[in-house]
């Protein structure tokens, strides 16, 4: 009889543990999808500051395989200022979205055969506060930066795992792309500091992934010209002229002659799709008028000088020079997303996500605040003033990998926004011994790209034919390397 009661107690305890998600977070249906979810979905807000009403929005997809044992992965899109629903809708979420056939109807959702939830639990987080559905009741929280974002996201994670304690022991990874090349290592560093301090709950952190991520001013800034030459987008003559006149320093031209050569490079590539040079553009970029104030900025980090008059920036980014006008408010120089406020981001199409996530029924289904309370959902917002205050990411990567946390730095090799040439160069610069010399890796029996493995679990990987958002362009290949990396298997 005693054994019977013990077994009953253990069974009840197990039931409690497997059903400890917060009440009301379960997503039971999504407008546009008529089938059955292949796993449980949860969404809602985590308050990280009661006094300010600072609320971060997440959408959590349980693994379709074995949620109690599979890794938990936090996914972050970049910007800074872009919602992680970008990854959910367009890249590796549980659904593929089919554009609405009529103006009145919503996009139709179909199951994604290559969703990353096939092999992992995944949290899509809108970060920092002010991005996507995340919001604060105190407007001062929309002035943030690299370091504060890492602190806030770490606070979110600790509270999220308190709400979902059944996942605390699962292997945990952090992943992201583009400007999340800053978010991921800074957050990982913050998390490791918490682990060292025995901050509860103690997460089972194993490593991180960064896709086409910015990392270092000099390496990223000098990556474009060699990339476009290697891709056959500029002539040998122009490449040699630019190299000679700029002395290899394309990031910060010091002479007018160097500047003029870089302008010629821009003219050759200005009409290409910056996110994937193999793909067409969806619309032609508009070019505002250039004024007499001209500041050249690096291609990854933005160091704008102080000024009290309207700022005109001619920015070499995304493979071209962008002339932009924007006012300086209260002494704060606008961030790049804000400078883009009056400028069409070239070759992007966010219509499906914008239409779906601003539908009142969808917002209700995912437990997001109404538009009247927090405004429209935008793929990338200009609501935040963002300070790039963490500097180069190389020191973060070296700190983390020297402690044997696993790192995968992957690049779609046809991305002109953050070219693979910069990521390849900085990973080599860390100075680790090569333990897996440059070689092809395969997916579905075909060469899918190339990799180089370094000591201390640092791997650089390319994906052949992919652009800036790798899973969007190469979903099967992306799921393959993602699955192998999480499992600790050779890629």
Automatic annotation (TrEMBL):
Coiled-coil portions: none
Pfam families membership: Peptidase_S10 (PF00450)
UniProt EC number: 3.4.16.-
GO CC terms, sorted: extracellular region
Domain of life of the source: Eukaryota
Record key words, sorted: Carboxypeptidase, Disulfide bond, Glycoprotein, Hydrolase, Protease, Secreted, Signal, Zymogen
GO MF entry, a single one: acyltransferase activity, transferring groups other than amino-acyl groups
Localization terms from the record: Secreted
InterPro entries: AB_hydrolase_fold (IPR029058), Peptidase_S10 (IPR001563), Ser_caboxypep_his_AS (IPR033124), Ser_caboxypep_ser_AS (IPR018202)
Residues annotated as signal peptide: 1-20
SUPFAM superfamilies tied to this protein: alpha/beta-Hydrolases
GO process terms (BP): proteolysis; secondary metabolic process
Known function: Probable carboxypeptidase.
Protein family membership: Belongs to the peptidase S10 family.
Protein name (Swiss-Prot/TrEMBL): Carboxypeptidase
Native organism taxonomy: Eukaryota, Viridiplantae, Streptophyta, Embryophyta, Tracheophyta
